What does this fold into?
Amino acid sequence: MTTSTTAAISKIKCTAPRRSFTTAYQGTPGDGKHNHRLLTHIIPHKTTLKDGRHVEVDFFRHSPTDTEEDEYFAGMALMNLVIREGRSWPFEEEFTSVEDWSGYFLSHTAFVVRALDNGMDAARRNSSSQGEILGCFYIKPNFPGRCSHVCNGGFITAPRFRGLGVGRLMGNVFLRAARDLGYKSSYFNLVFKSNHGSVYLWESLGFQRVATLENAARLEGLGEDELDTAYGYRYDLEKLPEDYLVL
It folds into this structure.
């Protein structure tokens, strides 16, 4: 290898964007606050759920010295819970370390829905406390390089708080935040047909179903040899109203 070639390669390594090869299913461990300065006008976003509970959508809080207060652990626990459920995400193996989970969930920009007061769960049987995480989601490129302006999102509502409007809240904030982060469009790769709540939510928020992939997933709750269909949903963020989610 010539000296000039070596110098050229070194220059490329030095100038390449830190996150240029991130896709929907891989990434570098981060803190979920990539380009957070672009969102200071909307985050934290405070609102009220259907049951009157006050919540905020905010970035993850990290406490290296107190696992009880560290929301990274809460986020990983929710992720592993939906993996075990086996009905809405493609993963089969649970995350075993916060570092591995943060490489997936916190590589770019990620959020929690945090309770601001005490309350009850959706079934009105068990109490919940101030500071509890009701859900979480991320925004990051779906593809690398020339297609990195197309973002992807991943959403989790804690099972005992489903039906309170947490998912719709996350979807609404996702649209505004994704647009303000500079993404041109959003594409969700795998929305499973059997996940009726998710299908209804995205269509009610104006996402367009642009792809159908039959026999896409082995999900829990289906027949032994049954494979579920997956839909692809797209949203043109450049058409989002300027005043969407006005505070």
The radius of gyration is 19 Å. Strands lie at 45-48, 54-59, 109-115, 119-120, 127-128, 133-141, 150-157, 185-192, 208-217, 228-236. Residues 1-22 have pLDDT under 50 and may be disordered. Helices lie at 3-15, 71-85, 98-105, 166-180, 196-204.
